[in-house]
Amino acid sequence: MKITRGEGILENFLAEQRYKVAKQVLSNFKNKDRVLDIGCGSYPKFLISLDFKEKFGIDKYDYDFNNYGVNFIKFDLEKNKKLPFEDNFFDVITALALIEHLEENVTKNLFFEVFRILKNNGIFLITTPSKISKPILELFSKLKIVSKEEIEEHKKCYEISEIYKLFELANFKNINVKLFELGFNIIGYGYKLL
């Protein structure tokens, strides 16, 4: 089953590495009522692998997740500023390999919206390619090692300090941002602590 759009011999492997790193962070998290994965993609493998009472996924493309126990909502972050959930609704929110596909102002708004819909003591976790990965990803996309379609859609690659600032501006606490996959990817997370 394809996890991302387009073709690329390493797409599923790289997605699995993101899932593994994200699950390590979430393994110690106690509150497991509701999880949301923003930009969940065509196959909700990450959500399926999580042990939560309720699982939600949103993406701008329309997918049918009825067979996977995931509540899916088609939602375009670039056309809608407000996420379609009430305040303090989720324990965990993830956005794996998403923000590089968004304009900077949309990403900034997303962090504030996630803070709004996250429960107190909840965690927001993201992964994104690092700035140094850009030329390598572009080369790999031409060689069909990673999805050309996905890479051509990238609008920004980030520095660690920029990710930290996004969490900080949105009022997240206990922020942790670091590199993984030989420095080509960033994982960042922060908590809503009121």
Topology:
Layout: H1 11-26, E1 34-38, H2 45-49, E2 54-59, E3 71-74, E4 90-96, H3 104-117, E5 118-129, H4 134-142, H5 148-152, H6 160-169, E6 173-180, E7 185-191
Parallel strand pairs: 1-2, 1-4, 2-3, 4-5
Antiparallel strand pairs: 5-7, 6-7
What does this molecule look like?
The protein is globular, with a radius of gyration of 16 Å. The chain has one domain (11-191): Vaccinia Virus protein VP39 (Rossmann fold). With 194 residues, it is an alpha/beta fold. It contains 6 helices and 7 strands. The mean pLDDT is 92. It has helices spanning 11-26, 45-49, 104-117, 134-142, 148-152, 160-169; strands spanning 34-38, 54-59, 71-74, 90-96, 118-129, 173-180, 185-191. A hairpin with a 4-residue loop joins strand 6 and strand 7. Strands 3-2-1-4-5-7-6 form a 7-stranded mixed beta sheet, with helices on both faces.
Key descriptive features of the protein:
194 residues, Rossmann fold, 7-stranded mixed beta sheet, 30% helix
How would you summarize this macromolecular structure in one to three sentences?
This protein has helices at 11-26, 45-49, 104-117, 134-142, 148-152, 160-169, and strands at residues 34-38, 54-59, 71-74, 90-96, 118-129, 173-180, 185-191. By secondary structure, it is an alpha/beta fold.
